[in-house]
Amino acid sequence: IQRTFSIIKPDATRRNLTGAINAKIEAAGLRIVAQKRIHMTPAQAGQFYAVHKERPFYGELCEFMASAPVVVQVLEGENAIAKYREVMGATDPAAADAGTIRKEFALSKGENSVHGSDAPETAAEEIAYFFAGIELV
Ligand code: ATP
Ligand code: MG
């Protein structure tokens, strides 16, 4: 059993899509074991996305992630990291497979509705950035 970290991004929370996205997560066999709504500052979003600091879209990405509340989650299941990336679909919704969250809900490459960790090390770091040990059972 594995855990991954997820964010339901501002474009999705604004459109009241948290429940619809959670339904897709659960239908894929992933269990939501922790979840809360937060509103990041641009600096907090910048620290979270620090690996993308040199990319041209970094400033825009940080502003977007701080533009409205998000829902941060810990998901659990067999191969949760890879499975959730499959459920999310490609970064660019135009390239995402049918039935994926991004195909169904994302607006663009930037406003793409969800984030999911890409490896066990980043999943552990990202979970620890947003959740205290006492919140994880
Ligand atoms: P995430 O890390 O959010 O799960 P990802 O792993 O599919 O998404 P990354 O390459 O890690 O994609 O990019 C991180 C985020 O940066 C993307 O989800 C998207 O919101 C934004 N992004 C990536 N490429 C672009 C781009 N060309 N223009 C605008 N925003 C982008
Ligand atoms: Mg990524």
UniProtKB/TrEMBL annotation:
EC nos: 2.7.4.6
Keyword Kinase annotated: yes
Active-site residue list: H115
Top-level taxon: Bacteria
GO cellular component: cytoplasm
Protein name: Nucleoside diphosphate kinase
SUPFAM superfamilies, alphabetized: Nucleoside diphosphate kinase, NDK
Record domain Nucleoside diphosphate kinase-like: where: 1-137
Entry keyword annotation includes Metal-binding: yes
This protein's UniProt keywords: ATP-binding, Cytoplasm, Kinase, Magnesium, Metal-binding, Nucleotide metabolism, Nucleotide-binding, Phosphoprotein, Transferase
Originating organism: Roseicyclus persicicus
Any one GO molecular-function label of the UniProt entry: nucleoside diphosphate kinase activity
Record's subcellular location: Cytoplasm
Cofactor(s) listed: Mg(2+)
GO biological process, one term: GTP biosynthetic process
PROSITE patterns from the UniProt entry: NDPK, NDPK_LIKE
Catalytic activity as recorded in UniProt: a ribonucleoside 5'-diphosphate + ATP = a ribonucleoside 5'-triphosphate + ADP; a 2'-deoxyribonucleoside 5'-diphosphate + ATP = a 2'-deoxyribonucleoside 5'-triphosphate + ADP
One Pfam family per UniProt: NDK
Function: Major role in the synthesis of nucleoside triphosphates other than ATP. The ATP gamma phosphate is transferred to the NDP beta phosphate via a ping-pong mechanism, using a phosphorylated active-site intermediate.
